[in-house]
Input
Amino acid sequence: MDATTVSPPGSPNHCLALPPGVGLAKPQVVSPVFAVPPTALALAWQRVVERAPRTEIVEVSADGLSVEAIQRMPLIGFVDRISARAVALAGGGASLAVYSRSAVGYWDLGVNRRRVEAWLADLGTVLQDGTGITRPSSRS
Output
């Protein structure tokens, strides 16, 4: 799923993060802009996802810019799906379009928004310390 073209449902069990001026819908979170190329940003995002508990990357696009992941909730085991796409921005830099949503239920008690905000914050840390951009993922 391309997170830049998402039209979220009316239910509160999702979170959409977009950079300014990107996408068709109004996001709940504004994605930060990073001074790296989109490919480096996507690799760093993969490191963030890999570090998260009960999380699995299920697909990486051929161009490496889109990442699909799932995260299982503790105890109950419900699955949330997280789609992200690194996008180049006019004027340089890159950002992420991220769409996190629950597969089951109407209300998520803010889980998806907290995940998106935490992972975007962790992304900045990964880029700053350089741990996310050294090796490409072998997943497809």
